[in-house]
Amino acid sequence: MTTALVTVAHGRHDHLRRQSAGLERSRVRPDLRVVVAIDDPGMAGVVDGSAEVIDCATTTSGLPLARARNLGAEHALRRGADVVIFLDVDCIPGETLVGRYAEACATYRSAALFSGPVTYLPPPLDAGYPIDALATMTRPHPGRPAPPPGELVAADDHDLFWSLSFAVSASTWRLLGGFCETYAGYGGEDTDFGAVARTRGVPLVWVGGADAYHQHHPVSDPPVEHLDEIVANARIFHRRWNRWPMPGWLDAFERSGLISRRGDDIVVTPA
Known about the structure:
Layout: E1 3-9, H1 13-24, E2 32-38, E3 51-56, H2 65-78, E4 83-87, E5 91-93, H3 97-107, E6 113-115, E7 118-120, E8 152-155, E9 165-169, H4 170-176, H5 189-199, E10 204-207, E11 212-214, H6 227-241, H7 247-255, E12 259-262, E13 265-268
Parallel strand pairs: 1-2, 1-4, 2-3, 6-10, 7-11
Antiparallel strand pairs: 4-9, 5-11, 6-9, 8-10, 12-13
């Protein structure tokens, strides 16, 4: 099977270099690496010549993450990929991530959306992260399943899906139709993709041993800097699915007085 790894990036060049260092240590390397550069013409100089860099223009509404992932996947499929692995630019792959995803896609008897555990790393030391010893830092996010290496566990809740690290077969990608490109900027498109999978009978399956390591970067909780994008995307999701996504963030915004709910709408409080 031909395996492609797709990463969407806008900046975060050092993070992408560490991802490359992780791939160098991978027991099974992808046959094709695709980096989708969102409005970042310098990206080609960040990765080596074995990676194929394709460009994606930004929008006034925010980073077109859904569109960029679709571009990366379609490029990989045109190049003959049977398995498409998506890995966030902030994530360093564990040594067995690529191999476990490829094995899962090859052996699972039906269409599935495969996702691996993600460890959120602390801030790096001056020397950076110990790429050759990441396994000793494995602490999977407690809010999602983390099966033992070699095991596959189907999850009942598709809202657990995240795009930090996941894989699909070529046929499953075509069945799902990619990410909804109406979304732009931060939040919502992941949950939408999981909802599409649920409605089309595609299970979310957690892959033991497909560990990824999320590099530290400053965040706010809730992410107030993305307030407008989150509200816009929440409205899109509500129109499509008749429910609100990202309830934790929306509730926190409301408690802080940043938004108010009016029937089936959310209104941002004027500054």
